[in-house]
């Protein structure tokens, strides 16, 4: 079976994108006779003096033919003996950058045209940057119009160096640079005699052979729920497309955001009942018990996917009206559509130099890193970890225009980081380092807030900071991290032991729990009583245990502050 | 884990789109034209929601000039699948005697474009699925999967909403609507391969059979009923012919063919020298005729 390659052509105006694709279709005998005849007729009135103008095959809109430019992305389908292709031919004008981005979001590979006479231009760099942003991992730089520079190897080498610099700047991984002439056909479908110094393959042969790895390295299984299927009272299935991994009847999965553990009772792929379903398939999943799952929820297994309300996003602004921070939009992320705010534009990225520029607003075709806050927690992840849950669009609430698209760079209230950002580790033992949390009274929201310091792992021999903004610990302290059943001994600010609480012996040194709250025990017997009480603890009586044995204010206090995340 | 085939990928994409519309759009309808693409669309809709029935009705815009076998097929399928099939015709124009012989391109505008717009308005549908494919025609190649239409149901090709990844923007204001094309990325060949793989029933007119026809302006026009009046010099001929697309019989040219099985049709499609729409009389009228129709609300 032939594989499918989805690719785009992009680059600056008049770099010959449409001509290149037109030429491939024409040369590879992929046109129907009527299309070919129409092309030959159209070309007679065109700008090439009767010679075939291959771009006319693609510029299908009346305005495009009138103006001789590409306005919107055009899709073409062709098959060679080796592969099936869908190509999105994209516009080169800066004005239509958003249409170019539409093509980029669809493709696995990008052909970026570079005019041999002009070299790498701002628009070349813009397009390469947007392709990389949209998640394209394979790039071909086609240095076009080689005929117009007399197939000059030196000139090509110079452009090759410019492209090389762009490749390293954007950290592009899978790249090729091919000299071509789209109008004359050199190195398009067949190797050109005019370029004897070029030893690589011609463009079409490269596209036929390039290995685009569709099996990404996304962890685990996940399926965003599109809808609940309820044909009758006995059947309740969750329908969606599996985005990564595979799932089988009997597997234990987690429903997010409710975090309930459930078993897969039955599985359908379209209308067929199956035992296993995999990435890319449209599935219907029945679970073994009633759970709180609806559109926008995500079913996961071993995927380490989180929930969050607030994140940093690289946005491409696509609307004529500017973004102003604080305005609210509808945000679509996965299958969830909900209101959210762009709370802050952190910085703009100069498409040419990659420089970070301070800005308060965002205009059409600009790229910026922004902070976004949603009205409720949603299931999401970083674009680089789980692509589908890291893609988003912003919809204007009045015009309904798709105002921006973007990717999730990092989640600001990531729960995965909450439990083990700082930890104590020794010989397979690992305990969370919540003793370094800072407690604040948020003067904006009149509520308690806390802040977690940056990730760090401490082990035996390390000195630890005993004084923070909202805590001050004695230099000698034993920390009992009960949830991890680990004891950490601190002597003169240094860790001298990390061991199981089973092996811990009371020596009269003050004791705190894992959060830095003092445990008020004065003897080995009292400690034994405390631990016995702890073993009996459950959700309802945990507060009772803490009130009996633990005090907050021995080593800690609350600082007044604004702008920290609520607990 | 094995890679999905090309057809599996196209099927998954279409089903995803169909489910998104059902989940997000207020009042969707699936346009059903009885042709092979509509047969594939109906099949995809049945699969998308299984074991539930599609949660929207189907609608056929009847010009009253469709092939007889098409109408029979439509009614049989609706009953077989247990789906809600609406049929709408421009009764006013029928009374006035608008027909494809005397009214040229105005016929398509009145009986198809206007009828469709009126029907969507009458029922208040906010989203209409169509079986348009990007490989059919140059202006279609430029259209989004979710194609936004203003209050006049017109398409603005110069100002289409960006469509990123699978994040379809279905939001509209009152009076506006969306046309949705789930099989945008399928080619004619994909359609046939899928019909074969899934064993989808199609109108027999696609298979070569001896049928009565006249040769008119180079097109093979089947004599489907006695409303087709012979012009001077025309005679009814009988040969094995078949149709690559189906529409109103006076406007749909057949091709001479021996292809009476799916395999033979696929073989013929792969080696075809003309694109399928050459057999549609309306497309060749003028450059950009399809774009003009679409701007005015045609599918």
- Rg of chain A: 30 Å
Distinct helical segment count of chain A: 10
Q: Considering the protein shown, what is the CATH homologous superfamily of the largest domain in chain A?
A: P-loop containing nucleotide triphosphate hydrolases
Gyration radius over CA of chain B: 19 Å
Oligomeric state:
heterodimer
Poorly predicted ranges of chain A (pLDDT <50, ≥5 residues)?
Answer: none
Question: What can you tell me about this protein's structure?
Answer:
The complex is a heterodimer of chains A (567) and B (299). Chain A is of the alpha+beta class and 567 residues long. Chain A folds into 4 domains: 4-209, 3-Layer(aba) Sandwich (Rossmann fold), CATH 3.40.50; 221-301, Beta Barrel (Elongation Factor Tu (Ef-tu), domain 3); 308-413, Translation factors (Elongation Factor Tu (Ef-tu), domain 3); 422-551, no CATH class. In chain A, strands 7, 8, 9, 11, 12, 13, 15 and 16 form an 8-stranded antiparallel beta sheet that branches. Chain A has a 6-stranded mixed beta sheet with strand order 2-3-1-4-5-6, sandwiched between helices. In chain A, strand 2 and strand 3 form a beta hairpin. Chain B is α/β, with parallel strands linked by helices and 299 residues long. In chain B, 33% of the residues lie in helices and 15% in strands. Chain B has 8 helices and 10 strands. Chain B has helices spanning 6-24, 36-49, 68-81, 91-95, 104-123, 188-198, 262-270, 289-295; strands at 28-31, 58-61, 85-88, 127-129, 146-149, 177-180, 209-216, 219-222, 237-242, 253-256. In chain B, helix 1 (6-24) crosses helix 2 (36-49) and helix 6 packs antiparallel against helix 7 (262-270). The radius of gyration of chain B is 19 Å and the shape is globular. Chains A and B meet through helix 2, helix 3, strand 2, helix 4 and strand 8 of A and helix 1 and helix 2 of B.
